[in-house]
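User: Here's a structure from my thesis project, written as C-alpha cells. My advisor, Dr. K., wants to see whether a designed sequence matches the one we expressed. Can you design one independently, without my sequence as a hint?
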C-alpha cells in the first residue's frame, strides 16, 4: 500500500480552544464555552467529548465577522434617523 504525499499533506491538523484563541487573539472563553460558540457561530467539530477547530475555517470566520461588523457600523442606527 502506498500513500500519496500530496494527500497526506492536504489534511489540516485540528486545534483546541486554547490554540484557537491564541491564533486569533480572541478570548479563550469564546472557544471553550458552548453558549459563546453558538452566539458567535464559531465553526467547530465535536469529536467525542473534545471540541476541535480548523484554523483555515476560523480565519475565514474571523474575516467574515469583521466584514459584517464593518457593514453594520456604516449603517445609520434608528436613533440617528436611519432605517
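Assistant: Designed independently from the structure alone:
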Amino acid at each position: 500500500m502506498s500513500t500519496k504525499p500530496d494527500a497526506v499533506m492536504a489534511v489540516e491538523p485540528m486545534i483546541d480552544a486554547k490554540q484557537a484563541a491564541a491564533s486569533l487573539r480572541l478570548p479563550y472563553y469564546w472557544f471553550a464555552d458552548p453558549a459563546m460558540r453558538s452566539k458567535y457561530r464559531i465553526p467547530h467539530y465535536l469529536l467525542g467529548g473534545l471540541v476541535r477547530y480548523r484554523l483555515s475555517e476560523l480565519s475565514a470566520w474571523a474575516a467574515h465577522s469583521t466584514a459584517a461588523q464593518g457593514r453594520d457600523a456604516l449603517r445609520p442606527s434608528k436613533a440617528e434617523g436611519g432605517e
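When you compare it with your expressed construct, this may help: Strands lie at 14-15, 45-47, 50-54.
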